[in-house]
Amino acid sequence: MLEKAKIDRINELSRKKKTEGLTAEEKIEQETLREEYVKSFRSHMRQTIENTKIIDPKGNDITPHKVKELKRKKK
Question: What is the SS3 string spanning the chain?
Fold first, then answer.
């Protein structure tokens, strides 16, 4: 996950944008940090999905085939 300092900076820039507005440099910084955050989020979400196994009440593995294929490709 993204460092706490970077998340705090994203939030700080967001608050500043709503109150005073951002300079051109701050807008670039904000966009860069947001892209990094989204990339990190997607990566972690993908790992979570790939490591999830779905079992129905009868005990059968009903994990979607697409997820199973992703697991096989990683091995």
Answer: CCCHHHHHHHHHHHHHHHHCCCCHHHHHHHHHHHHHHHHHHHHHHHHHHHCCCCECCCCCECCCHHHHHHHHHHC
Per-residue pLDDT of the chain (75 residues; tens, 9 = 90+): 789 999 999 999 999 999 999 999 999 999 999 999 999 999 999 999 888 899 999 999 999 988 888 888 876
Give the pTM.
0.76
Expressed as residue numbers, the domain containing 65 is: 4-74
Domain count of the fold of the chain: 1
